[in-house]
């Protein structure tokens, strides 16, 4: 679904399929204690590579970028809150 020129908004069922693929991939990342979905370690694991491929195929590329960025930002904010550091 990475071609933006032919993008058609996802219907309800397609969104559910995308979210499920995202959740499965992110659950895998959590199990490996990986925060950034773009890390090279993810692609070295056959299961991780398959889950990433499924996620990227079932979700529009703009959604994948958004979900990945959101995951990274939320993890970073969690660390900031734990340490009490301020963002400048």
Automatic annotation (TrEMBL):
<keyword id="KW-1015">Disulfide bond</keyword>
<dbReference type="InterPro" id="IPR036549">
    <property type="entry name" value="CX6/COA6-like_sf"/>
</dbReference>
<keyword id="KW-0496">Mitochondrion</keyword>
<dbReference type="InterPro" id="IPR048280">
    <property type="entry name" value="COX6B-like"/>
</dbReference>
<comment type="similarity">
    <text>Belongs to the cytochrome c oxidase subunit 6B family.</text>
</comment>
<protein>
    <recommendedName>
        <fullName>Cytochrome c oxidase, subunit VIb</fullName>
    </recommendedName>
</protein>
<dbReference type="InterPro" id="IPR048281">
    <property type="entry name" value="COA6_fun"/>
</dbReference>
<dbReference type="Pfam" id="PF02297">
    <property type="entry name" value="COX6B"/>
</dbReference>
<dbReference type="GO" id="GO:0005739">
    <property type="term" value="C:mitochondrion"/>
</dbReference>
């Amino acid at each position: 679904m990475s071609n933006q020129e032919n993008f058609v908004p996802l219907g309800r069922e397609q969104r559910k399929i995308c979210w499920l693929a995202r959740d499965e991939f992110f659950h895998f990342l959590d199990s490996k204690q990986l925060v950034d979905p773009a890390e090279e370690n993810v692609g070295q694991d056959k299961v991780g590579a398959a889950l990433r491929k499924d996620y990227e195929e079932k979700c529009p590329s703009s959604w994948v970028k958004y979900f990945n960025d959101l995951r990274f930002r939320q993890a970073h904010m969690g660390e900031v809150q734990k340490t009490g550091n301020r963002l400048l």
